[in-house]
């Protein structure tokens, strides 16, 4: 994709340099830069990506995206944006041609049980004959191939690269853990979920969300997304644990599609009975 094509989806962007260059890769990690890379300068709480521009250029970056005024060689194109996070949410899914809208996507959110749920769903879908990718706390799996992961839900750049890789390997279903941080920070920009699943809500991450209500509302954004405008897929489902009173109430309020409740204590659509918990299972 040319720089001109890439910046066409951005707002209030300033470009200095050749806009006809072909971009073959996008990264915010200077160690991953290769020829014809767009290097994205993210200013984090501990590291300023702008400091790594010289290393990125030396490694083959042909363009830089930044919020700051920077000095670079004349043959390097600079894309200046007012808000890096918003720019990434628009540009990166567009660059990869929205792989998260082409596969069936199952998002699992909740405080506990996300990892177990994604692995059980993976096994069920594979037994049914589908090719499955998993994105979660422990690792990323593309069928039997395993890759390391750094956050429960990767940032938008890493996530879109992973989804693109899955799509190119003909994955049918992507089952992924979706954290409250990722929902609040919109790391899942460009993804369209077919099914959203809620496990439970217990006190966690209150250093970030401050209150349980804010925590629940962050999780509920996954269920809002099932009825967002301009969706390209149909047959949306919300799967919600009715035994979690605070969480289920909030998630149901934000559900505007087919609802499937489950539980043990309450009268849910799917109800487990005669449950025995033993050391073996």
Features:
nine-stranded mixed beta sheet, UDP-N-acetylmuramoyl-L-alanine:D-glutamate ligase, single chain, alpha/beta, 281 residues
Strands, helices and their partners?
Layout: H1 3-7, E1 14-16, E2 25-27, E3 37-40, H2 53-59, E4 61-66, E5 77-80, H3 84-95, E6 104-109, H4 114-127, E7 132-135, E8 140-142, E9 145-147, H5 156-168, E10 173-177, H6 180-184, E11 195-198, H7 206-209, H8 212-224, E12 237-241, H9 245-253, E13 258-263, E14 270-271
Parallel strand pairs: 2-3, 3-4, 4-5, 6-10, 6-11, 7-10, 11-12, 12-13, 13-14
Antiparallel strand pairs: 1-5, 7-8, 8-9
Helix pairs in contact: 8-9
What does this structure look like?
The chain has helices at 3-7, 53-59, 84-95, 114-127, 156-168, 180-184, 206-209, 212-224, 245-253; strands at residues 14-16, 25-27, 37-40, 61-66, 77-80, 104-109, 132-135, 140-142, 145-147, 173-177, 195-198, 237-241, 258-263, 270-271. The chain has 281 residues and is of the alpha/beta class. It folds into two domains: 3-95, Udp-n-acetylmuramoylalanyl-d-glutamate--2,6- Diaminopimelate Ligase, Chain: A, domain 1 (3-Layer(aba) Sandwich), CATH 3.40.1390; 99-271, Mur-like, catalytic domain (UDP-N-acetylmuramoyl-L-alanine:D-glutamate ligase, 3-Layer(aba) Sandwich), CATH 3.40.1190.10. The termini are far apart.
Short recap of the structure:
This protein has nine helices and 14 strands.
């Amino acid at each position: 994709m040319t720089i001109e094509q890439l910046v066409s989806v951005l707002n209030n962007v300033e470009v200095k340099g050749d806009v006809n260059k072909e971009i073959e890769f996008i990264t915010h990690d200077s160690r991953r830069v290769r020829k014809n890379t767009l290097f994205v300068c993210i200013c984090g709480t501990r590291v300023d990506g702008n400091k790594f521009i010289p290393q990125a250029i030396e490694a083959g970056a042909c363009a830089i995206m930044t919020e700051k005024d920077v000095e670079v060689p004349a043959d390097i194109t600079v894309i200046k944006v007012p808000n890096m996070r918003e720019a990434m949410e628009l540009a990166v899914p567009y660059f990869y041609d929205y792989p998260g809208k082409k596969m069936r996507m199952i998002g699992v959110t909740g405080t506990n049980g996300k990892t177990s749920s994604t692995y059980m769903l993976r096994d069920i879908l594979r037994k049914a004959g589908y090719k499955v990718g998993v994105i979660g706390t422990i690792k990323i799996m593309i069928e039997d191939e395993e890759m390391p992961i750094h956050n429960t839900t990767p940032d938008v750049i890493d996530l879109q690269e992973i989804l693109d890789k899955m799509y190119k390997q003909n994955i049918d279903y992507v089952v992924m853990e979706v954290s409250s941080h990722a929902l609040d920070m919109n790391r899942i920009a460009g993804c369209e979920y077919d099914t959203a699943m809620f496990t439970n809500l217990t006190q966690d991450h209150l250093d970030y969300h401050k209150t349980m209500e804010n925590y629940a509302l962050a999780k509920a954004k996954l269920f809002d997304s099932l009825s967002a405008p301009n969706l390209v897929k149909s047959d949306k489902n919300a799967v919600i644990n009715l035994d979690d009173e605070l969480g289920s109430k909030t998630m149901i309020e934000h559900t505007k599609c087919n609802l499937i409740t489950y539980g043990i204590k309450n009268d849910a659509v799917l109800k487990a009975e005669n449950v025995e918990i033993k050391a073996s299972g």
